[in-house]
Amino acid sequence: MAETPAKPTECPICAKPVTEKYRPFCSKRCADVDLARWLGGTYRLPTEESGPGDGEGDGAEGAEFREKQD
Ligand SMILES: [Zn+2]
Q1: Which of 13, 36, 37, 35 is nearest to 25 (CA)?
Q2: How many domains would you assign to the chain?
Q3: Residue 31 lies in a domain
Q4: Which domain holds residue 20?
Q5: How far is the CA of 9 from the centre of ligand 1 (A)?
Q6: What is the C-alpha to C-alpha distance for residues 6 and 38, in angstroms, rounded to an integer?
Q7: Is residue 21 part of a domain?
Q8: Ligand 1 centroid to 45 CA: how many Å?
Q9: Is residue 51 in a domain?
């Protein structure tokens, strides 16, 4: 397997090249913006319940966040 050089990603906030220090953002400002979105509820939170027995096939989005705790 060939080594893949760490390719600079785009900042999810402003699409500028990501800075190593502030990954995955380009700057502290964008990191703060992302945090503010979380705190402000801009991101859709899994609070909607479809009803009893109907939410088992809906765990894909949650798994994405659980990876960070590993
Ligand atoms: Zn940015």
Answers
A1: 13
A2: 1
A3: yes
A4: 8-42
A5: 11
A6: 27
A7: yes
A8: 23
A9: no
Distance 51 CA to ligand 1 centre (A): 39
Q: How far is the CA of 37 from the centre of ligand 1 (A)?
A: 14
Q: pLDDT tens for residues 30-57?
A: 999 999 988 887 656 566 666 666 555 5
Q: What is the mean pLDDT of residues 16-30?
A: 95
At 38 the pLDDT is 86
CA–centroid distance, residue 22 to ligand 1 (Å):
9
What does the alpha-carbon distance between residue 32 and residue 51 come to, in Å, rounded to a whole number? Answer: 35
**Residue for token pair 């080594």:** 3
Q: How far is the CA of 39 from the centre of ligand 1 (A)?
A: 18
Q: Kindly give the distance from the C-alpha atom of residue 62 to the centroid of ligand 1, in angstroms, as a whole number.
A: 25
